[in-house]
Amino acid sequence: MPWILAGEHCKYLKPRKDFILRGSSQTWFTCELLDICLERPYEFCDAHCQHYIPV
User: Is the alpha carbon torsion for 5, 44, 37, 12 positive or negative?
Assistant: First the structure.
């Protein structure tokens, strides 16, 4: 997550994390404006989202 949040990111983008088993985890992001889940938000947000608002 730090590599995504270190640069400019959208104020609607929120990191989420699930701990599955024995310390392994899955990380993804949710867009609170469009109500969608993204594994790699930088591929979608920068190129396609007209609501992109850097923080």
Answer: positive
Q: Quote the CA–CA distance of 34 and 20 in Å, as a whole number.
A: 26
* 19 contact partners, CB below 8 Å, separation of at least 6: 25
Check if the beta carbon of residue 8 is closer than 8 Å to that of residue 55. yes
- Which two tokens mark 13? 């983008």
Q: What is the pLDDT of residues 2-55, one digit of tens each?
A: 555 555 667 788 888 888 777 788 888 898 888 888 887 777 777 777 766 665
Q: What is the pTM of this model?
A: 0.61
Q: Judging by beta carbons within 10 Å of its beta carbon (0-12, 13-18, 19+), is residue 29 exposed, middle or buried? A: buried
